[in-house]
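Still learning. Any example?
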Amino acid sequence: MKILVRGTNWIGDAVMTVPALTELRRAFPDAHITLHTRAAAAQVFEDADFVDEILIIGPENSKLGSILSQSRIVRRHRFGLGILLTNSVEAAAVQRLGSVPIRFGYATQSRSPLLTHAVPVPQWKDERHEVFYYLDLIESVKTWYGMITGPASGEPMPALKVSGPRRERAAALLRDHGINSGRPIVALGVGSTNSRAKRWPAERYAMLADRLAADLEADIVLVGSEGDKPVSEEVVGLATAQIVDLCGLTSVSEAAALLADVDLLISNDMGLAHLAPAIGTPTIVIFGPTNEVTTRPFSDNAEIIRKPVECSPCMLRDCPIDHRCMTHVSVEDVLARASHKLRSQ
């Protein structure tokens, strides 16, 4: 069987689909599983053993042009089963026009006519973690194929591998930037390209970096995308500690390898906050406007810091008032958690 899975678009969401993809592989051990996703999200799965192939969705000048070009590629592969982890109409149209005969997806955005199996959205959608939303769709596929065995035992924690050569290149990158001292390495994810409301203030990160360097004798590295560069430069300018700013200098794949080589990540609610614990890195995430019940990093390696306020979670990209959900989190709050994490390793 050839299975086509339309993956999610964002890095954090991609990590949250890992248990579903792992369960799909367990259910269909001999199938050829192809993941269809965007370039950045595809790099999350570079060393994954539960997919056989990745099809990259390239940029197009228009939404219609993208649908048509993708569907032509899909049609050439002659897939027998399609699974849509995204909720969009466009993703369903690609598989329908790509002649995938069996198409499973949630009945969202009025796209049910494009699916052969439109699965109702679970009533608990906003009350359980997104990991279970993706897993539930795989359970629907298994049920239709007559697989009466339940899901794998234990909590469905996302787990990703980073190969030895990737880790060696990451270590070389750190050495090239002067980090080879044997001291603890703490990475800070100070940005969040899709939401300013998710950002803990830059001046707090600068103060935290100074305290981590002075109190815990840690080396500090900033990680993130090119879009995070303005805030990372602000943090470097405000801090007195020596900081290595790697924002915008690594791909997603390289950032994952880099995070596998550090002792701790402290970050806002961003893609790397999901990626780091999935590869085994202890992670602290500062939560404010988003809902930790559904979108926190789903891992024993991660913990969140949040201060309850009456307006959170609001899910807004910009705070219309005083950003109290984030400013109520103090440097001392984060430093205490960081100190505990580093001491316990």
